[in-house]
Design goal:
263 residues; globular; binds NADP nicotinamide-adenine-dinucleotide phosphate; Rossmann fold; seven-stranded parallel beta sheet
Length: 263
């Protein structure tokens, strides 16, 4: 099935690694124009070059920098009919904070809430006029099953994720009159830089595959393995597609059946 993404323009935050990078690649494969950012210019440079790819370093917590990144992306791709059009926004940039209550400082709480909320609101505010111009745009917030199934060892991230899921539902209603759909993907354990960094930090010397399999078993992943970034990208592309024109205000879990509750 043709997803109808060719020649459309998408912004993906945090596209230099993991889920963001897989999404950037999948969109380029579909013939879309893609603008992406990350904080580290060298990592962004390692994505490589492509006619339809625009990259620029930008921290999503910095509203002015996000506005400038968006302006340059719109300028790069020109838009349709003389209007600066963005057909979709993927709010993906971020990371989690592995801390329990007693290890969590006031600054940790502030930083985590800022990253999660600014990571959605700054790109949304910057892109909104261009999304409106698309008349049928889609926003996808990359979230976590932690939003619905909190873990005490990730207490700030779980709470912030729940807030973002709630915010997404409000945004879906608020932006529907402008023809902008808003949905989320809620991730379980996905094999990306986040987990390779944790494996390295654990310093156990155990092979990564073995460490990962035990992690999946410990967390109760029904499919018995971590997910791949491209498996998340497919779900994101499905929600970005104009084929999903009647889907808004909802979330798709991409988690291999983690946990035992009804999500
Ligand atoms: N992997 C999982 O198991 C999992 C589970 C649940 C949710 N998630 C969420 O899924 C998203 C993607 O995670 P991932 O696993 O693909 O992570 P990753 O491999 O570490 O990639 C994160 C990307 O976001 C960028 N980034 C981080 N902070 C940023 C900031 N303040 N401004 C701009 N860019 C920023 C990073 O680039 P720079 O470092 O250069 O800025 C990188 O491109 C994150 O929001 C994460 O919390 C992941």
């Amino acid at each position: 099935m043709d997803l109808g993404l060719a020649d459309r323009t998408f912004l993906v935050t945090g596209g230099s690694s993991g889920v963001g990078l897989a999404t950037v690649r999948a969109l380029l494969d579909e013939g879309a124009n893609v603008a992406t950012c990350g904080r580290d210019a060298d990592r962004l440079g390692r994505i490589g070059t492509h006619d339809r790819l625009f990259t620029a370093p930008c921290d999503v917590r910095d509203a002015a920098a996000v506005r400038e990144f968006t302006r340059r992306a719109v300028e790069e791709f020109g838009g349709r009919g003389g209007r600066g059009v963005i057909d979709g926004l993927v709010n993906n940039a971020g990371q989690s904070r592995m801390k329990r209550l007693d290890e969590t400082t006031e600054d940790d709480w502030r930083d985590e809430l800022e990253l999660k909320f600014a990571g959605v609101l700054n790109p949304l505010h910057a892109a909104r006029p261009h999304l409106r111009a698309a008349a049928g745009a889609s926003v996808v917030n990359v979230n976590a099953v932690l939003a619905k199934q909190p873990e005490p060892r990730l207490i700030t991230t779980s709470a912030a994720r729940a807030g973002i899921l709630n915010l997404s539902a409000s945004l879906a209603r608020e932006l529907a009159p402008d023809g902008i759909r808003v949905n989320s993907v809620c991730l379980g354990l996905i094999d990306t830089g986040q987990w390779t960094r944790r494996h390295a930090a654990a310093g156990s010397g155990r092979p990564y595959e073995e460490w990962q399999a035990e992690l999946a078993a410990d967390r109760g992943v029904a499919l018995g393995r971590l997910g791949r970034a491209d498996e998340v990208a497919y779900a994101i592309l499905a929600l970005l597609s104009p084929r999903a024109s009647y889907i808004t205000g909802t979330s798709i879990d991409v988690c291999g059946g983690v946990g035992r509750g009804i999500l």
